[in-house]
Amino acid sequence: MNRLVAVALSFPLLSACATARPAKAGAAGQCRNVLSVMTGHGARGVVLPSNVARRDLSLQRTDIEDYWVPSEDDVGELEAALRDAVKTRLAEANREPPSADRDADVDALTQIQAHLSEYVRQYAGIVVNGNRRVLLNAFPDDTYCYRDQLIVVKDGGAWFWTIQYDVKLHQFLHWELASKAFSGATAAGSPLQGAPAKREPLPEMVGFKQPTSDVPARDIQAVRSARGPRRFGSFAAD
User: Fold this and answer.
1) Which of 62, 77, 176 is nearest to 134 (CA)?
2) pLDDT value, residue 124
3) Which of 46-50, 109-113, 175-179, 230-234 bottoms out in mean pLDDT, i.e. has the lowest?
4) Parallel, antiparallel, or unpaired for β 171-177 and 161-166?
5) How are beta strands 161-166 and 119-128 bridged, if at all?
6) In this structure, how many other beta carbons lie within 10 angstroms of the beta carbon of residue 80?
7) Range list of β-strands (E), 76-192
8) Cβ contacts of 17 within 8 Å, gap of 6 or more
9) How many CB atoms lie within 10 A of CB 96?
10) The Cα angle at residue 192 between residues 186 and 194, in degrees rounded to 5
11) Which has the closest alpha carbon to 53: 132, 117, 118, 116?
12) pLDDT of residue 43
């Protein structure tokens, strides 16, 4: 089964079951690996500079008012509470009336809970309704070029998903599979239930290097040239 990874591109739909991991695909030699990788709380990922987030999200979503760069504490707080948030969302899904969508969410969340540490993350700072949020974008650890640009897929099942975290309210919102999050589908409109994340001292995120708001224009141009023309979907506002 092939996984066609699209970096801000639209590719054909995949027909992967929720638990089947997509096969490795892409061309690693085209990746510039500009961004630093950090680890902590059993997670590995990169923080996207605000101009990269703007470049790759501005035409994907209509509800984002501005962009910012998450700090080490923002990312650490999110990751410290993420597993409980996924567990809470799974419990909510299990209480919903039976339906095809409900069963698909239960299957996906069950896999995500079981394999949470296997996903690589991208963290993008966004402002929605005047509130700062961290958009977490998760995907398999063999995905190419995630250190250069936002990873967007047309489908891919439970191996590709997003969730938002409000850094002021300390609350998760809008868990979605990437097949919905990057296809113009309406996001879930309510926050995940349960207590806000505990604000306790956080261990250091190893390798954390907060990016500046700028990646050199020559690097951005090189990435754009390597990936070719882009086609975008849109997001509905909250």
Assistant:
1) 77
2) 96
3) 230-234
4) antiparallel
5) unpaired
6) 18
7) 119-128, 131-140, 161-166, 171-177
8) 157
9) 12
10) 170
11) 132
12) 93
5 confidence band (pLDDT: 50, 70, 90): very low
Task: Report, in this order, helix, strand and coil percent for the chain, each rounded to 5.
Answer: 30, 20, 50
Q: What pLDDT is recorded for position 58?
A: 82
Is the overall model pTM greater than 0.85, yes or no? no
Q: Which amino acid is at 3?
A: R
Tracing tokens 């799974």 back to the chain, one arrives at 90
The token duo for 185 is 């589908």
Q: Which tens digit of pLDDT belongs to each residue from 138-168?
A: 999 999 899 999 998 877 889 999 999 999 9
| Interatomic CA distance for residues 150 and 176, integer angstroms | 16
Total length of the chain: 238
The least confident of 9-13, 84-88, 176-180 is 9-13
How far apart CA 183 and CA 231 sit, in angstroms, is: 11
Assess whether pLDDT exceeds 80 at residue 203.
Answer: no
The token duo for 6 is 């699209």
**Residue type at position 235:** F
Closest CA to 42 of 86, 73, 82: 82
Closest CA to 140 of 118, 124, 161, 158: 118
What is the rounded distance in angstroms from the CA atom of residue 102 to the CA atom of residue 207? 38
Residue 146 to residue 167: CA distance in whole angstroms: 24
